[in-house]
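Re: that backbone. Tokens:
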């Protein structure tokens, strides 16, 4: 449902609003887990933090199934494709014809020309695509690893009472950052590449993960980590599909974005398995299933810090390539 709604609405609106459109849709995508976590904590947890037998899991799963079916039916009846009719190149490309009658074209001539609709082997040969792909896989994979183990951190540090709060706040931070990333990148795209906005979030995430290696057992640091993962996660999910559609067109967007998400599925699986192996190795007592203390997560946070640093480097590669293209577009404008 996420993919169909995303691709449909990206086609339906003017490309100059693409960051906003993706940000709004992805913000709704993050609001779902936040609301679900809150509903579970209030209605189905029954006040039990550690006794799973007293939690109404059957009722929660039934509610989830009904909600999923209802959302699917709403999409079937109301989702429609009404493509924006104006030529997308009027916004995305350099005004190669020197049309002085088009006010909009004159305003955006510093945005570089793109290759057009690209997919398949030609796409896989493109270095910028690999920078975008691996930056996303590393970021989304480590973010998922943190998000799915928030309760494990809290249990290990004997902070279970904060489980509902933390699992609710993390996607809320994602919602906020998707609004920020989408609207900010749209506002700056005529002067600065969207990759610059994403780079700022990735640097923040890397710093937070390094701090967590040594101090994640403090509640304040764990809260900052919640922000340091939630905000970059929102920016990653907002700006990656936005840049992908601008770089390689909308014709094959579903295929290209699906390819990136498919890669993330395998990357996320590997990172989760590695996290689990590190956690189990840190227990140290036969028959015990829960690890307590900072040492349980030292190496897993180190892994996530390295992944975040690598994603930052790949993102810097995208930015460097984009800055060169922006410079060429400005030089072309000056010549004209």
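Recovered sequence:
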């Amino acid at each position: 449902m996420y993919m169909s709604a995303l691709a449909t609405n990206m086609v339906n609106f003017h490309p100059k609003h693409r960051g906003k459109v993706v940000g709004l849709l992805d913000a709704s995508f993050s609001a779902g887990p936040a609301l679900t976590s809150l509903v579970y904590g209030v209605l189905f947890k029954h006040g039990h933090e550690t006794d799973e037998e007293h939690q109404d899991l059957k009722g929660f799963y039934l509610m989830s199934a009904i909600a999923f079916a209802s959302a699917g039916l709403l999409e079937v009846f109301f989702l429609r494709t009404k493509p924006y009719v104006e030529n997308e190149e009027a916004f995305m490309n350099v005004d190669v014809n020197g049309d002085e009658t088009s006010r909009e074209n004159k305003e955006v001539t510093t945005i570089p020309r793109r290759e057009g609709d690209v997919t398949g082997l030609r796409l896989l040969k493109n270095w910028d695509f690999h920078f975008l792909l691996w930056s996303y896989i590393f970021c989304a994979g480590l973010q998922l690893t943190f998000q799915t183990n928030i309760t494990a951190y809290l249990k290990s540090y004997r902070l279970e009472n904060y489980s509902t709060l933390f699992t609710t706040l993390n996607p809320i931070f994602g919602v906020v950052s998707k609004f920020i990333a989408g609207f900010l990148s749209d506002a700056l795209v005529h002067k600065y590449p969207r990759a610059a906005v994403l780079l700022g979030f990735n640097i923040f995430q890397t710093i937070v993960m390094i701090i967590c290696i040594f101090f994640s057992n403090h509640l304040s640091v764990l809260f900052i980590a919640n922000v340091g993962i939630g905000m970059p996660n929102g920016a990653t999910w907002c700006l990656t599909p936005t840049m992908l559609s601008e770089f390689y067109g909308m014709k094959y967007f579903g295929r290209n974005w699906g390819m990136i998400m498919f890669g993330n599925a395998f990357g996320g699986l590997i990172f989760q398995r590695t996290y689990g192996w590190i956690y189990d190795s840190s227990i140290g007592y036969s028959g015990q299933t829960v690890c307590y203390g900072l040492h349980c997560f030292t190496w897993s946070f180190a892994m996530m810090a390295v992944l975040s640093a690598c994603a930052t480097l790949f993102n810097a590669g995208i930015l460097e390539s984009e800055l060169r293209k922006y410079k060429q577009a400005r030089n072309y404008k000056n010549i004209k």
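The chain has one domain: 2-335. The longest helix spans residues 298-335.
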